[in-house]
Amino acid sequence: xxxxxxxxxxxxxxxxxxxxxxxxxxxxxxxxxxxxxxxxxxxxxxxxxxxxxxxxxxxxxxxxxxxxxxxxxxxxxxxxxxxxxxxxxxxxxxxxxxxxxxxxxxxxxxxxxxxxxxxxxxxxxxxxxxxxxxxxxxxxxxxxxxxxxxxxxxxxxxxxxxxxxxxxxxxxxxxxxxxxxxxxxxxxxxxxxxxxxxxxxxxxxxxxxxxxxxxxxxxxxxxxxxxxxxxxxxxxxxxxxx
Amino acid sequence: xxxxxxxxxxxxxxxxxxxxxxxxxxxxxxxxxxxxxxxxxxxxxxxxxxxxxxxxxxxxxxxxxxxxxxxxxxxxxxxxxxxxxxxxxxxxxxxxxxxxxxxxxxxxxxxxxxxxxxxxxxxxxxxxxxxxxxxxxxxxxxxxxxxxxxxxxxxxxxxxxxxxxx
Lengths: 242, 166
Prior knowledge:
The structure holds two protein chains of two kinds. By secondary structure, chain A is mostly helical. Chain A has helices at 6-15, 17-21, 26-33, 40-68, 73-99, 110-152, 160-200, 207-241. The termini of chain B are far apart. At the A-B interface, helix 1, helix 2, helix 3, helix 6 and helix 7 of A face helix 1, helix 2, helix 3, helix 4 and helix 5 of B.
């Protein structure tokens, strides 16, 4: 069997003129310099900016509701809680935005950069994802409050089935949004993790990655449960106890 | 002296122009189709441009460029087209039979490299460019020892793949 001389292929590579002669024009380069990035962190940044804007608008919307439902103490109390929730979420999202690994760090070594990305997505990303998903639920609540105001001028006492229907819609909005986002970003993160695992193959074992994955899932479930128990408790206290 | 934006842009464009070969080689190795190549060109140039103000000239521009380009190629993830495995679909190799005006040896090498994973591609690309083990290790973030071990394995893998495509 004929022996393969890799050196021959290496010198063919080095002397291949087409790889050196191929040129992009200055206009093409300048166009690329001004284009939008498809990098995962840029996609995440854009999503986060949109979410922050929507949350600010929702906060304003809840403030308007506070005025509309004047003299209705119980509704104002609920509204104030949602204002507080929207503000807290917005502040947290702004903090997350500032911690997104910077595009300008692209000259780190590949392993460090992959670690900083994966580290970020497995720590801050989960909570941010929950808060982003909460936007659709807050949007629905705000819309429902406006609807009740213009239709009845108040919120009529809820029956069990009302709680059930509203609860399901709010939960579905949240779960659907969380599912789609998680699915989308997990696909990207998985590819980064795969590259990191390829680097780590010979040096450190990939237990760190497994730990991240476990932590990520645990956090998502834990925070979602806490959030929903909190919301249920809030509704219970406001409607039943007060 | 303080440089304004236009000076920085001109300087960057001149440097990039001088080292366009690096860009084409990285995009060539990490793309399967001309569309993917275009996307990768765009992303790498964008990342280079955004990172350029932080380039301190402590290393050669080419070394820095390799690092940013490889980082970008490894991080650019796409659902639909980019980095889809193509082992069983030679038709989707980057214009291999049609527009590649390259020598037969380079075509075979390209086919073999396209079967490697992303990190192996980065290592082999730097090896093809005659970078030292220290430089490769520094770019990837592995120890020199690990790089040498990995290179032995990659070369063996390449030889098997070349045999297949010869």
